[in-house]
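We treat protein structure as text, and this decision shapes the records that our systems exchange. The tokens are whole numbers drawn from a learned vocabulary of local backbone shapes. One such record is reproduced below, unchanged from the form in which we store it:
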Amino acid sequence: MNLPRYKPFNNTASDFKLKRNCGDEKSNGFQLERSQIRSVPALSRLCFVLAVTTLLLTVQGQQVVATGKRRWVDAHWNRGNSYFRIGWNWLKGCLHQGWHLFPTLALHGGVDPEPALASKKQAQQQFEREFTVKSYRFAA
């Protein structure tokens, strides 16, 4: 049987966007690349399980923040943990500290009351964007 050779992600701009946007599925959480699964059906099943788990952990993280228990799992207020990471830490607290999972599953939409920021510098940079306005007038 001739299996395709495993190739890690390249460091191109499109891969960087994938890495930045899917951090919870990669190094911050599940480490999907380490599985090195080559079977498409097996990888598809694994991705389904990871998607459901991501949903459940994200909901738990939102409910931790909504109930004011964020400091229980995120000691540094401006640390920048995602709802996924907060939910992951809450689950570990349930297993080791005897806490309880939230019984309801509801994703809350709208504006995030406490958006995650990796650093104060990143928070400041979002207000320092420069735009150039150019106007063109064409003769009729």
About this structure: The longest helix spans residues 40-66.
